[in-house]
Structure prediction request, 238 residues.
Amino acid sequence: MTDRRNKILDRIRQLRNRTVDRGCTEAEAVEAAAKVAQLLADNDLTMDEVEIRATPFTCEDTALEADIGERIWLVAEAIAHLTDCRTWVSPTGADPVRIFFFGLAHESEIANYLLAICSRAMRDDLSRAAKQWALYRPNVRRRRRGAFLDGMADSLARRIRALKPPRPPGKGIVVLKDALVEAELERLGMRFRDQRGRMPNDLDDGFLDGRIAGDRVALDPGLRPPSRAAGLIGSDGP
Prediction:
Protein backbone atom coordinates (compact mmCIF):
# COMPACT_ATOMS: atom_id res chain seq x y z
CA MET A 1 0.00 0.00 0.00
CA THR A 2 1.34 3.45 -0.94
CA ASP A 3 2.32 6.14 1.56
CA ARG A 4 -0.46 8.33 0.14
CA ARG A 5 -3.09 5.66 0.87
CA ASN A 6 -1.69 5.18 4.36
CA LYS A 7 -2.00 8.89 5.00
CA ILE A 8 -5.59 8.89 3.76
CA LEU A 9 -6.49 5.97 6.04
CA ASP A 10 -4.83 7.69 9.01
CA ARG A 11 -6.73 10.89 8.21
CA ILE A 12 -10.03 9.02 8.11
CA ARG A 13 -9.34 7.39 11.48
CA GLN A 14 -8.46 10.77 12.98
CA LEU A 15 -11.65 12.34 11.66
CA ARG A 16 -13.75 9.49 13.01
CA ASN A 17 -12.42 10.30 16.48
CA ARG A 18 -13.87 13.81 16.27
CA THR A 19 -17.14 13.11 18.04
CA VAL A 20 -19.27 14.88 20.63
CA ASP A 21 -18.31 12.19 23.16
CA ARG A 22 -14.67 13.17 22.67
CA GLY A 23 -15.25 16.87 23.27
CA CYS A 24 -16.13 18.20 19.82
CA THR A 25 -19.14 20.37 19.21
CA GLU A 26 -22.01 18.92 17.25
CA ALA A 27 -21.09 21.11 14.29
CA GLU A 28 -17.48 19.90 14.37
CA ALA A 29 -18.58 16.28 14.56
CA VAL A 30 -20.92 16.70 11.59
CA GLU A 31 -18.17 18.41 9.59
CA ALA A 32 -15.74 15.57 10.39
CA ALA A 33 -18.28 12.95 9.34
CA ALA A 34 -18.83 14.77 6.05
CA LYS A 35 -15.08 14.82 5.40
CA VAL A 36 -14.88 11.08 6.14
CA ALA A 37 -17.66 10.40 3.64
CA GLN A 38 -15.91 12.53 1.02
CA LEU A 39 -12.54 10.84 1.55
CA LEU A 40 -14.13 7.40 1.27
CA ALA A 41 -15.89 8.34 -1.97
CA ASP A 42 -12.87 10.08 -3.52
CA ASN A 43 -10.53 7.16 -2.81
CA ASP A 44 -12.87 4.23 -3.46
CA LEU A 45 -12.68 3.06 0.16
CA THR A 46 -15.13 1.58 2.63
CA MET A 47 -15.16 1.81 6.41
CA ASP A 48 -14.68 -1.97 6.52
CA GLU A 49 -11.35 -1.54 4.77
CA VAL A 50 -10.33 1.30 7.06
CA GLU A 51 -11.12 -0.75 10.16
CA ILE A 52 -9.56 -3.97 8.94
CA ARG A 53 -6.29 -2.23 8.06
CA ALA A 54 -6.14 -0.80 11.59
CA THR A 55 -6.50 -4.22 13.25
CA PRO A 56 -3.24 -5.72 14.61
CA PHE A 57 -1.92 -9.16 13.70
CA THR A 58 -1.17 -11.79 16.35
CA CYS A 59 0.26 -15.29 16.47
CA GLU A 60 -1.44 -17.72 18.85
CA ASP A 61 -0.03 -21.16 19.62
CA THR A 62 -0.91 -24.28 21.61
CA ALA A 63 1.28 -27.14 22.83
CA LEU A 64 -0.22 -30.62 22.59
CA GLU A 65 0.94 -34.11 23.46
CA ALA A 66 2.33 -36.01 20.49
CA ASP A 67 -0.50 -38.47 19.79
CA ILE A 68 -3.11 -35.70 19.54
CA GLY A 69 -0.77 -33.07 18.12
CA GLU A 70 0.32 -35.29 15.24
CA ARG A 71 -3.29 -35.77 14.13
CA ILE A 72 -5.00 -32.49 14.95
CA TRP A 73 -3.26 -30.64 12.09
CA LEU A 74 -6.25 -31.62 9.95
CA VAL A 75 -8.54 -29.85 12.41
CA ALA A 76 -6.18 -26.86 12.58
CA GLU A 77 -6.31 -26.46 8.79
CA ALA A 78 -10.12 -26.49 8.89
CA ILE A 79 -10.11 -23.87 11.67
CA ALA A 80 -7.69 -21.70 9.71
CA HIS A 81 -10.02 -21.96 6.70
CA LEU A 82 -12.97 -20.93 8.86
CA THR A 83 -11.22 -17.95 10.49
CA ASP A 84 -9.13 -16.73 7.52
CA CYS A 85 -5.92 -17.36 9.47
CA ARG A 86 -2.71 -19.13 8.49
CA THR A 87 -1.65 -22.19 10.45
CA TRP A 88 1.48 -24.28 10.75
CA VAL A 89 2.84 -27.05 12.95
CA SER A 90 6.18 -27.46 14.71
CA PRO A 91 8.74 -29.67 12.88
CA THR A 92 8.19 -33.43 12.72
CA GLY A 93 9.36 -35.21 15.85
CA ALA A 94 8.84 -32.28 18.22
CA ASP A 95 7.24 -33.17 21.55
CA PRO A 96 5.09 -31.42 22.54
CA VAL A 97 3.69 -30.55 19.14
CA ARG A 98 2.92 -26.85 18.72
CA ILE A 99 0.08 -25.61 16.52
CA PHE A 100 0.28 -21.97 15.40
CA PHE A 101 -2.38 -19.58 14.06
CA PHE A 102 -1.46 -16.23 12.52
CA GLY A 103 -3.97 -13.59 11.50
CA LEU A 104 -5.96 -10.58 12.60
CA ALA A 105 -5.99 -10.40 16.39
CA HIS A 106 -9.57 -11.46 17.16
CA GLU A 107 -9.60 -14.19 14.51
CA SER A 108 -6.36 -15.88 15.57
CA GLU A 109 -7.61 -15.81 19.17
CA ILE A 110 -10.88 -17.44 18.15
CA ALA A 111 -8.95 -20.04 16.11
CA ASN A 112 -6.81 -20.97 19.10
CA TYR A 113 -9.88 -21.16 21.33
CA LEU A 114 -11.69 -23.46 18.91
CA LEU A 115 -8.60 -25.68 18.68
CA ALA A 116 -8.67 -25.97 22.49
CA ILE A 117 -12.32 -27.11 22.33
CA CYS A 118 -11.40 -29.80 19.80
CA SER A 119 -8.20 -31.00 21.49
CA ARG A 120 -9.96 -31.32 24.83
CA ALA A 121 -12.77 -33.31 23.21
CA MET A 122 -10.25 -35.61 21.51
CA ARG A 123 -8.40 -36.16 24.79
CA ASP A 124 -11.57 -36.84 26.82
CA ASP A 125 -13.20 -39.14 24.27
CA LEU A 126 -9.96 -41.07 23.76
CA SER A 127 -9.74 -41.65 27.51
CA ARG A 128 -13.27 -43.05 27.57
CA ALA A 129 -12.77 -45.21 24.48
CA ALA A 130 -9.42 -46.61 25.69
CA LYS A 131 -11.18 -48.38 28.57
CA GLN A 132 -12.66 -50.77 26.00
CA TRP A 133 -9.16 -51.75 24.82
CA ALA A 134 -7.59 -52.29 28.25
CA LEU A 135 -7.11 -56.04 27.71
CA TYR A 136 -5.77 -55.76 24.16
CA ARG A 137 -2.10 -56.29 23.35
CA PRO A 138 -0.01 -53.06 23.52
CA ASN A 139 0.47 -52.86 19.74
CA VAL A 140 -3.29 -53.26 19.18
CA ARG A 141 -4.04 -50.54 21.75
CA ARG A 142 -1.62 -48.17 20.02
CA ARG A 143 -3.22 -48.88 16.65
CA ARG A 144 -6.71 -48.35 18.04
CA ARG A 145 -5.69 -45.09 19.74
CA GLY A 146 -4.22 -43.69 16.55
CA ALA A 147 -7.17 -44.75 14.40
CA PHE A 148 -9.65 -43.33 16.90
CA LEU A 149 -7.90 -39.94 16.93
CA ASP A 150 -7.67 -39.97 13.12
CA GLY A 151 -11.42 -40.57 12.95
CA MET A 152 -12.17 -37.74 15.38
CA ALA A 153 -9.89 -35.34 13.50
CA ASP A 154 -11.55 -36.27 10.22
CA SER A 155 -15.04 -35.67 11.61
CA LEU A 156 -14.18 -32.39 13.36
CA ALA A 157 -12.37 -30.99 10.33
CA ARG A 158 -15.29 -31.82 8.05
CA ARG A 159 -17.81 -30.20 10.40
CA ILE A 160 -15.72 -27.06 10.94
CA ARG A 161 -15.25 -26.50 7.21
CA ALA A 162 -19.02 -26.78 6.77
CA LEU A 163 -19.51 -23.86 9.20
CA LYS A 164 -18.05 -21.32 6.78
CA PRO A 165 -20.59 -19.59 4.52
CA PRO A 166 -19.82 -19.32 0.80
CA ARG A 167 -17.53 -16.44 -0.12
CA PRO A 168 -19.13 -13.60 -2.06
CA PRO A 169 -17.71 -13.03 -5.55
CA GLY A 170 -15.33 -10.15 -6.22
CA LYS A 171 -12.89 -8.38 -3.94
CA GLY A 172 -14.75 -8.36 -0.65
CA ILE A 173 -13.42 -7.79 2.83
CA VAL A 174 -12.45 -11.47 3.20
CA VAL A 175 -10.23 -11.23 0.14
CA LEU A 176 -8.67 -8.10 1.60
CA LYS A 177 -7.99 -9.89 4.89
CA ASP A 178 -6.25 -12.72 3.03
CA ALA A 179 -4.05 -10.23 1.21
CA LEU A 180 -3.15 -8.40 4.43
CA VAL A 181 -2.20 -11.62 6.22
CA GLU A 182 -0.03 -12.74 3.30
CA ALA A 183 1.62 -9.32 3.12
CA GLU A 184 2.42 -9.36 6.83
CA LEU A 185 3.91 -12.86 6.63
CA GLU A 186 5.99 -11.67 3.69
CA ARG A 187 7.15 -8.65 5.67
CA LEU A 188 8.17 -10.92 8.57
CA GLY A 189 10.09 -13.17 6.18
CA MET A 190 8.08 -16.25 7.14
CA ARG A 191 8.08 -19.14 4.66
CA PHE A 192 6.43 -22.51 5.14
CA ARG A 193 6.75 -25.94 3.62
CA ASP A 194 4.16 -28.71 3.74
CA GLN A 195 5.75 -31.42 5.89
CA ARG A 196 2.76 -33.63 6.48
CA GLY A 197 3.86 -37.21 5.95
CA ARG A 198 1.54 -39.59 7.76
CA MET A 199 -1.78 -40.74 6.38
CA PRO A 200 -4.77 -41.44 8.66
CA ASN A 201 -5.42 -45.04 9.63
CA ASP A 202 -8.96 -45.36 8.33
CA LEU A 203 -8.96 -49.16 8.08
CA ASP A 204 -9.05 -49.94 11.80
CA ASP A 205 -12.43 -50.15 13.55
CA GLY A 206 -11.27 -47.37 15.87
CA PHE A 207 -11.48 -44.88 12.98
CA LEU A 208 -15.25 -45.23 12.70
CA ASP A 209 -15.59 -45.01 16.48
CA GLY A 210 -13.58 -41.78 16.37
CA ARG A 211 -15.74 -40.29 13.63
CA ILE A 212 -18.86 -41.06 15.66
CA ALA A 213 -17.29 -39.37 18.69
CA GLY A 214 -16.29 -36.36 16.58
CA ASP A 215 -19.84 -35.97 15.31
CA ARG A 216 -21.04 -35.61 18.91
CA VAL A 217 -18.72 -32.74 19.89
CA ALA A 218 -20.57 -29.47 20.52
CA LEU A 219 -18.69 -26.88 18.46
CA ASP A 220 -20.94 -23.87 19.13
CA PRO A 221 -19.10 -22.78 22.33
CA GLY A 222 -15.89 -22.60 20.32
CA LEU A 223 -17.08 -19.98 17.89
CA ARG A 224 -15.80 -17.20 20.12
CA PRO A 225 -14.18 -16.83 23.53
CA PRO A 226 -16.89 -15.96 26.08
CA SER A 227 -15.13 -12.72 27.07
CA ARG A 228 -15.05 -11.27 23.56
CA ALA A 229 -17.66 -9.62 21.41
CA ALA A 230 -15.90 -10.14 18.08
CA GLY A 231 -17.82 -10.54 14.84
CA LEU A 232 -19.02 -13.96 13.78
CA ILE A 233 -16.44 -16.14 12.12
CA GLY A 234 -16.55 -15.94 8.36
CA SER A 235 -18.81 -12.90 8.27
CA ASP A 236 -17.92 -9.59 6.73
CA GLY A 237 -19.58 -7.43 9.33
CA PRO A 238 -19.35 -6.78 13.10
In short: DSSP finds nine helices and three strands in the chain. The chain has a mean pLDDT of 76.
